[in-house]
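Example protein
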Amino acid sequence: MDFLEKYLSIPMAKLSEQRHLRAIRDGVVSSLPFIIVGSMFLIVAFPPVPESTALYQWAQEHAFEILIPYRMTMFIMSLYITFGIGYNLAKSYKLDPLSGGQIAVASFLLTLTPIALDKVGFVLPMANLGGHGLFMAMIVSIFSVEIMRFCKTRNITIKMPEQVPPSVARSFEALIPVAFVVVFMTLITVVLGIDLHSLVDQAVSPIVKAGDTLFGVLLPVFLIGFFWSFGIHGISVIGAVARPLWEKYLGANAEAVAAGAPIPHVAPETFFQWFVWIGGSGATLGLVLAMLFFAKSSYLKALGKTTLVPSIFNINEPVIFGTPIVLNPMLIIPFIFIPLITTTIAYFATTLGFISPTYVMAPWTLPAPIGAYLSTGGDWRAIVLVLVNIGISFVIYIPFFKMYDQKLLDEEQAQAEENKETHSNEPNLA
């Protein structure tokens, strides 16, 4: 354990706090309100009711209008994420964050080639503004802010007199880096005619394919449980690296549904959220239920009651640190391996067509059956899978929990006997 902590856990924790990865993570997270709200319109456009019903027929007739909010939010998620990455990276360098976000957006838009349409003018291809363009968004955001930082540290800026309002002064400070980025990106995409999105697609295609395999879904699940067992927020560590890929999957799935095409990906983040981490990392809702039904020690009886409601809403830090699971050899084993089992079951259930792939970003604090139902666009079979996985986690946790509960019970009884002897030996002063 010391070897793993020294050579894997600690370095990975440091990696998750690396400046650029942190900016990407925060940029992606900043777009979640738009992704959640936009994806809800997919459910309205494709309601989970029989096709023969009046509601479904009405939704199909008005699908174009219903999907406009989706196309202006989730469908162009990379545009929002680009601003978020640029903003957060510039902020970490103590540069003007607003300028950082704006220069990143300008750089990203210049990777797109406008299309001329008769009677319409020039239009932008929106496909690369969605999940498809996410990796390009990360690259150009970092590039743009680094140019901005280079100009700032080398004093290659236009400085205004102190009497000039700060907002105006910041605008002129950004003038030279903006000019450089715009000219450089124009040279690449317009003059040289290089399709940067195609180049990035070719470079990351092995990663995209691997992330949707069984090994690709099991690896992050294992690592997240492993880091949590040391008290390190596993999703923060692995999510900093994997979340852009998960968002790309989610965007592609949503686009496929909107276009009436087959859903291509198994493993967006919503797959893990609703079918694997039920109650939180480690699928600890099953452990909480074991506490409620089988706990004999006073401590775990009380803990089960107090953590039930948070666990239903996928908040399990009280369980992880209160039980504790961290550095607890009796509970680390099921905490790590139960999600691997439920991941395997959910993966094959999805790939074999027993449940629909997820494509809607439902709020993560919803109870798992509701979240799974919404994220699959109203597939009732997703609810069944969630209940099956809860039952599996509950059954597997029981023997490990009972060992730990007996240990605590023995300690409580020993403490009670010690207290009793102490009181019996006290002199009677009456």
In short: The CA atoms of residues 298 and 409 lie 8 Å apart. Residues 380-425 form the longest helix (46 residues). Strands lie at 115-117, 121-123.
